[in-house]
Amino acid sequence: MLRSEFDLPGFVSPIRVLSRVLGAPIVDAPELQASIASLLQNRQEEATADCWVDLRCVAIEAGLHHCHQGTEDRIHVGELTRTVGVILQGRGETEAVEPREIGAILRSLGLTPKRDSRGFAISLSDATRRRIHELAREYQVAAVREGLAACTHCTAVFAADGAANDPG
Hints:
The protein is mainly alpha-helical. 61% of the residues lie in helices and 7% in strands. The protein starts with 12 loop residues before the first helix and ends in an 8-residue tail after the last helix.
């Protein structure tokens, strides 16, 4: 029995999964598998554009930025919110973002802020930094697509699946 290894690593996660589902049964027809990429390209472009100002993607991108600062051991939700605001402002968005909204997004991504003397913060432990990098890869945030930074986590996470858009 032939086993399909069809994959489109440059596509955002939901479209990549769809491409695998569509390409898996077409084991011995590489030309048909190749046509799947062109069929899904428009949706990929829409997803990429949506990610540009999607708060979840921008919050991940802001987290990635703080990971690459290297000196921080935690990031407060308020500070992360300010970084999100700067990114959005640079992309032409004028609507204000509230820390409560960013905190909810962090929790939905599995990053749980804990209260300290200055407010809520996420620890930038090695495991958390790796998780942020994994989320950046999964959501194909702009920093990943543009290859803005490289660190040991970038090397490990983006090389793990041979992603074509490795920022290193």
